[in-house]
Specification:
Blueprint (H helix, E strand, L loop, with lengths): L5 E6 L3 E3 L10 E3 L4 E4 L9 E5 L4 E4 L4 E4 L2 E4 L4 E4 L8 E5 L4 E4 L4 E3 L2 E8 L4 E5 L3 E4 L2 E4 L11 E4 L2 E4 L7 H30 L10 H21 L1
Antiparallel strand pairs: 1-4, 1-7, 2-3, 4-5, 5-6, 8-11, 8-15, 9-10, 11-13, 12-13, 13-14, 15-16, 17-18
Length: 232
């Protein structure tokens, strides 16, 4: 399967950059929020393959703080790009509908407004107001939909940047969850049916039949079991 590289900006002072997955001492320390491309680690919790903007290849620790750099397309109209986060600063460029730009840093405030630092296709950098409408992956959104402060919250998992509390489960973990939930539903459905039946078996009366949860639970358990065996 082709490796999916994600373009990011790395945050933090003295971020260790290793020449290989197993080196104990870093090749160098990164600072100044450099640009890089990251790929998923070969093993869970392993170091992340990295290509720095200067072409150097190496590895970063899995808890590196980084911001995925979104690639936006201007949705409509003419958009001013300023040299500083202020409308009184010099214009860097005027973008038109369809022009591309990358977010390369965290939001900042200036003149009572919120601004996004952006990198243009011609290589120049500037700032754009956060209310600009852009197109991302075919859907029109406002640029402020990008993460507020991913430098302290987000990390690379399976080729995607996600909040730490939304880390993707491995196939094995997902299978174990299916087995646990499915088993609980199946046993619970059978147990409640048997218990309520025992209460009225001699005297007669109505009892609960929970075959639905039992059957669905059994299905989910065996589905999880099959996936667990497949992922082993």
């Amino acid at each position: 399967m082709e490796t999916r590289w994600v373009k990011v900006r790395i945050f933090g002072d003295s971020v260790p950059f290793y020449a290989s997955e197993n080196d104990e001492s870093p090749l160098t320390q990164l600072s100044g929020s450099p640009l890089a491309e990251l790929a998923p680690a070969n093993v869970k919790g392993g170091r992340l393959p990295t290509i720095l903007s200067d072409g150097r290849r190496g590895y970063l620790l899995p808890d590196v703080k980084c911001l995925q750099i979104p690639l936006w397309s201007i949705a409509s109209g003419h958009i001013n790009i300023y040299s500083e986060p202020s409308t009184v600063s010099p214009l860097v460029a005027v973008l038109n509908s369809g022009d591309l730009l990358e977010q390369y840093g965290l939001k900042t405030s200036g003149g009572g407004d919120t601004w996004i630092p952006v990198h243009l296709a011609n290589g120049r950098d500037g700032y754009v107001g956060s209310q600009v409408k852009v197109v991302n992956q075919g859907a029109q959104v406002r640029i402020q939909k990008s993460p507020e402060d991913p430098g302290t919250q987000w990390l690379l998992k399976d080729g995607k940047i996600r909040p730490r509390n939304q880390q993707l489960k491995t196939p094995r973990e997902a299978a174990q969850r299916d087995m646990l939930i499915g088993g609980a539903l199946c046993i619970g459905g059978i147990a409640i049916t048997a218990f309520t039946y025992s209460l009225v078996s001699e005297s007669g009366g109505t009892y609960l039949i929970l075959w639905g949860p039992a059957i669905f639970g059994a299905y989910r358990f065996f589905r999880g079991l099959a996936r667990y065996v497949e992922s082993s």
